[in-house]
């Protein structure tokens, strides 16, 4: 009798679902590469190392915010307070910078943690909608930033604080290194820890997650705390980059971070998403901004138009892919 083992026939439906899942999670990477190559053909200076470095550094602040926003959206929520938290973070960092580098980073990050804690508690304990809670925080934080600094607050001597955001290490910009390290850590947390599994479980089906023993309330509060802390960190780095605190800094980041996450394959309904996809979405928005700057004759309004078009297309594609997986 022969010892040949016949492999079972692959189910066509299963193969289709795998392909759909792959496109859903990695499609933004393909679009980013195609967009970058097309921009490189249209503008010879686009792919030069200096310009690529500028794109990544400019996107690093939104990128840090998008990490926290991605976690929140995968969990099935929204955090509209992050943009104003970035602005307040720049102001707090400017106030704290004369007391040293540690104080300049600790103050905005602690404030972000506190805001995230309050948001999380209101959402979990008071059972308020995330949209309402974080929108109220957006307005309150924006007002507080203006009260503290007016339009801007200049850091007279940023010293080492400024060097962190403007310096390089082994030829790599510090901001670029911080961005990629942060996404690497976030990807490990999301994919390799119980916390990450809980975030996916809550976003997929909150009641089922609760029945499985997931501490839903704690995870929700912790996720909003992470989002607020990262927004505070982004504000501190932006203050170090600009040597000033700007109450208007971070305006629009709340929507741009959601757009980056969705373009990167995160479902607005929760339960699906990757950090690599979110990073691709952030960089794609950065490429769009840079291309418009390369053209020169177009106003900034075209950046919003292009970003909105990509977001709409991403939502349409995601909806179609979700129906394909469900079928």
UniProtKB/TrEMBL annotation:
It is found in: Cell membrane. GO terms for cellular component: plasma membrane. It comes from the Bacteria. GO terms for molecular function: transmembrane transporter activity. Its main location: membrane. InterPro entries: ABC_transp_permease. Keywords: Cell membrane, Membrane, Transmembrane, Transmembrane helix. It is a multi-pass membrane protein. The chain crosses the membrane at residues 20-43, 55-78, 98-124, 131-149, 169-190, 221-240, 260-288, 300-321. This is ABC transporter permease.
């Amino acid at each position: 009798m022969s010892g040949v083992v016949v492999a079972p026939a692959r189910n066509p439906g299963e193969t289709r679902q795998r392909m759909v899942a792959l496109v859903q999670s990695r499609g933004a990477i393909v679009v980013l590469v195609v967009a970058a190559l097309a921009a490189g053909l249209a503008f010879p200076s686009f792919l030069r190392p200096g310009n690529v470095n500028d794109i990544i550094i400019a996107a690093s602040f939104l990128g840090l915010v998008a990490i926290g926003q991605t976690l929140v959206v995968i969990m099935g929520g929204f955090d509209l307070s992050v943009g104003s938290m970035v602005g307040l973070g720049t102001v707090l960092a400017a106030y704290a910078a004369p007391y040293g580098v540690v104080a300049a980073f600790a103050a905005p990050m602690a404030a972000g943690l506190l805001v995230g804690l309050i948001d999380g508690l209101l959402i979990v304990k008071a059972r308020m909608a995330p949209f309402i809670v974080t929108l109220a925080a957006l307005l309150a934080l924006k007002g507080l930033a203006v009260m503290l600094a007016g339009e801007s607050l200049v850091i007279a001597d940023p010293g080492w604080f400024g060097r962190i955001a403007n310096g390089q290490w082994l030829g790599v910009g510090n901001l670029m290194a911080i961005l990629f390290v942060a996404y690497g850590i976030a990807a490990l947390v999301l994919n390799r820890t119980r916390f990450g599994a809980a975030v996916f479980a809550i976003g997929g089906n909150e009641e089922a997650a609760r029945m499985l023993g997931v501490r839903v309330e704690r995870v929700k509060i912790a996720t909003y705390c992470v989002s607020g802390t990262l927004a505070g960190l982004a504000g501190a780095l932006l203050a170090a980059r600009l040597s000033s605190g700007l109450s208007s800094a971070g305006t629009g980041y709340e929507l741009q971070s959601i757009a980056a996450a969705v373009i990167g394959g995160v479902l607005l309904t929760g339960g699906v998403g990757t950090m690599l996809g979110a990073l691709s979405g952030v960089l794609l928005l950065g490429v769009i901004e840079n291309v418009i700057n390369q053209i020169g004759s177009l106003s900034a309004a075209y950046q919003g138009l292009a970003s909105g078009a990509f977001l709409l297309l991403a939502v349409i594609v995601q909806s179609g892919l979700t129906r394909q997986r469900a079928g």
